[in-house]
Structures are given as C-alpha cells and as structure tokens.
Amino acid sequence: METLSEAMNRLQKEGYNSNITKEEMLDLNPGDWQIDHTCRFEGMSNPDDNSILYAISKKDGSRKLLIVNAYGVYNDEVIYKFMEQVKPV
To answer: Which residues pair with 18 in a beta bridge?
Structure first.
C-alpha cells in the first residue's frame, strides 16, 4: 500500500506539482477543474491520520494541483466545499 508521500511523489512525476493556498482556492472557479485521481489514506491506530489526496487539473490543461485534506470530522471546510463542486473525469 502506498503512503501519502509516495503517492504525492508519483503524481508529481506526472506533472501535479503546483501548490495552492486555501485563500487562492477561494478565487478559483470549481467548474474550470476536474478530479483526475483520488487517493485515501487511513491511519493504522489514529483516526486523526485519515486523509485524502486529490490530483486535479484545469480543464484547459494549463495547471495541475495536488490538494490534501483530512476526511471525516477533521476535514478543512474550504477545501471540502471546493472539492465538492469539482467533477471527476
């Protein structure tokens, strides 16, 4: 099973290397983006370690992003609301 850092390294080799802040995310139009990959990671003994990695790309091909969020109770609301509106390929 792949770790979060291994998945990020693999996806970075595919061109998903742009970083984005939550503040910048608020200015993005979710309709311009698509979800290319989703990877979930569960902590062995601690529910705080549950996370999800999204590899998204702009539909015009100009930008690829990696976005990490917790899932469940500990998710970040800004990221969650944005990703809820982005459609998978």
So the answer is: 65
Q: What CA–CA distance (Å, rounded) separates 79 from 89?
A: 19
Long-range contact set of residues 80-85: C-beta below 8 Å, sequence gap at least 24 = 82/25, 82/26, 82/28, 82/30, 83/35, 83/54, 85/30, 85/31
pLDDT at 67 over 80: yes
Cα 58 to Cα 15: distance, rounded to the nearest angstrom: 12
Convert the pLDDT of each residue in 14-64 to its tens digit: 999 888 888 899 999 999 999 999 999 987 666 667 899 999 999 999 999
Tokens 């459609």 correspond to 87
Between the alpha carbon of residue 53 and those of residues 64, 86, the distances in Å are 13, 14
